[in-house]
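Appendix B. Raw example, untouched.
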Amino acid sequence: MNDPIDAGEVTTDALESDSVVLLRELVRRPSVTPEDGGCQALIGDRLAALGFTLESLPSAGVQNLWARLGDTAPLFVLAGHTDVVPVGDEARWRSPPFAADVVDGQVVGRGAADMKGGVAAMITACERFVRGGGHRHGSIAILLTSDEEGPATSGTAHVMRVLADRGTQIDHCLLTEPSSTTRFGDTVRNGRRGSLGATLVVRGVQGHVAYPHLADNPIHRSSAFLAELVGVEWDAGSAHFPPTTLQVSNVHAGTGATNVVPGECTIEFNLRHGTASPAVTLKARIEAMIERHGLDASIVWRDSAAPFLTEPGPLTHALLDAIRAATGIEATLNTAGGTSDGRFIAPTGAQTVEFGPLNATIHQVDERVDAADIASLSCIIEDLLGRMLGDDGEKA
């Protein structure tokens, strides 16, 4: 294990960049969801100095920041979150999870990759873009929430409701979520699969295991259904989405005693799906299976995210060009991964994409991000802003 290296001992351009300095300031502010830890206040001060108009839009204990510069179309939004997941066993970390130590050119800390690195990059990109006079037309907005890693009901979803009530239309949105998979710059998310969860309760009759004829074991009754459920090929995917998948996440039954037939069995599962199998279709198919197996059961659905897709167009072309110019990499577009707050923004009609650092260590012990990648990400965002809102954008 490497000992932490203080940034002052490192003279590389990346570690001294404005983006990495800000990243380390943000990581040092503990902000386990739904806490913000003062991150948005720090960022708000920097944006106010650029001329942004700031609005705090809190909801149910969640901090949300909406900051806008300009009042004309097109409106380009940079979106992200300041909350992070819990650190887990702190003793397993190579350095304190909120110390933002540097090890081998990487910033180590909870949220370094997901997604304070992306947030830092977007803010410093805006600072250079605006102060350098690159903002020629349209408007820039920053949307930050402290409720992305939590229930996600009072964060970006709330802000989008406020904007809808005002008639505010977002034209383009970049979320700097960690999208890169093997090397920085290799992947852009131009959509995400939907997420459909369910809790199925199968009812039986509790009794003594020595008298099975007087009981009805719901585990036994549900086993054939469960075998069919996990073996279904839901669809073959589509041009932009992989095939739908289902995973059982929890099965629970019993009283804790080995001589009691349980009276209920609870099965929890989740489907990740594209447009080939809408949630309504999946629900109908599974409910028909439950009826066909003759189960005395009830099911509660959690339709937490619909699939969304941004077809290749001005935003994706500009972003791919900016990545290529900075890294020489031909990034690919895909819709893999989990859910993001893009699911609240894309349905409004905004072209929505995600691009950020490597996701290999997100939510893990010793979460970390390469300092050089964050510095590069900031430059790519600055270039993208120029292509969309600068002289190049006027010509487009």
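End of appendix B.
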